[in-house]
Design goal:
- With 282 residues, this protein is of the alpha/beta class.
- It contains ten helices and 14 strands.
- The protein has a six-stranded mixed β-sheet with strand order 8-7-6-9-11-10. Strands 2-1-12-13-14 form a five-stranded parallel β-sheet. Strands 3-4-5 form a three-stranded antiparallel β-sheet, with helices on one face.
- Helix 8 links the parallel strand 12 and strand 13.
- Helix 2 packs parallel to helix 10.
- The N and C termini lie close together (10 Å).
- The mean pLDDT is 94.
Length: 282
């Protein structure tokens, strides 16, 4: 018996501020999956990065990764669907960034569907801290000069820096490429005073990610309850039938919510799902 469809953001929503789920959250989410609820997550993270922090939960349904660019099967460990940039557009983005002295991390799939992260020698504070938070990550490869070969399917270009460093790049990309790319520009949860500016396929967002997810699990988007906290969750909130914000969410997310639950530090998502399961309501 199906006991509901739930799709949650991770950082700032399901995870505590230390980027881990509480024991209570692990227990509740695991039980919900075991008892028949269709529960999964939609995150800006990759599979490698997200699995490192939530692997205690037995995820058995597709995962929405890279802010909607990739739909991934955590059981078979394979790519199901997604949206990726073409190499030509990717190289145009790289040239625009380099014109103002900025080089990103390039996240892509290789010919075997394996995740790759290409980058030039890291020296900027944000890049160094981001890499340090993922020690011994086999995806990372340093290259002398970053470019996108035709053998890769680019998922996302990630620039990490101060607001005043990244804002001019955003404007240059809008002027040059307009609607040919999707842009995420938001404050980082873990690196002080730093922002993420990310470029991806025009359809690579959590709204389309949710629609792909619903198709693969066999429901309509109106059947899905979503949980979020930040502006990259707006798409999920636009598409879902029930929108739940954690108390620590961005004001725009709070305004869009049908319901506000306790904060990520207080296990708001898990408490909501546990209550629904006990009441036997999808």
């Amino acid at each position: 018996m199906n006991k509901g469809y739930y799709l949650t953001d991770l950082d700032g929503t399901l995870l505590q501020s230390n980027a881990t789920p509480s024991e209570y959250t692990v227990r509740v989410m695991s039980r919900a999956i075991t008892e028949g609820a269709v529960v999964s997550y939609a995150t800006a993270r990759s599979y490698q990065s997200s699995n490192a922090v939530v692997s205690q939960i037995p995820w058995s349904h597709p995962l929405v990764l890279y802010n909607g660019a990739l739909l991934f099967d955590p059981v078979e460990k394979c790519v199901l669907d997604g949206f990726w940039l073409d190499p030509k557009t990717t190289n145009t983005l790289l040239l625009i960034g380099k014109s103002i002295g900025l080089v990103p991390l390039l996240f892509a799939l290789d010919h075997e569907d394996k995740e790759r992260v290409l980058h030039e020698k890291l020296g900027r504070t944000g890049d160094l801290q981001f890499a340090a938070s993922r020690p011994n990550d086999p995806r990372f490869s340093e290259v002398e000069e970053l470019a996108c070969p035709d053998t890769l399917r680019p998922l996302i270009l990630t620039y990490i820096g101060l607001f005043d460093e990244l804002a001019p790049l955003k404007e240059k990309v809008i002027a040059a490429l307009g609607s040919k790319v999707h842009i995420h520009f938001m404050k980082d949860n873990y690196i002080d005073n730093h922002y993420f500016l990310e470029f991806s396929h025009p359809q690579a967002n959590k709204q389309n990610g949710l629609l792909l997810w619903a198709k693969h699990v066999g429901c309509s988007s109106a059947d899905v309850t979503v949980f979020g906290d930040n502006l990259n969750d707006v798409g999920m909130f636009l598409a879902a039938g029930r929108k739940v914000a954690v108390a620590n969410a961005h004001p725009e997310i709070l305004d869009m919510a049908d319901e506000i639950v306790q904060s990520n530090e207080e296990d708001g998502v898990a408490a909501f799902i546990e209550a629904r399961m006990k009441a036997n309501k999808p």
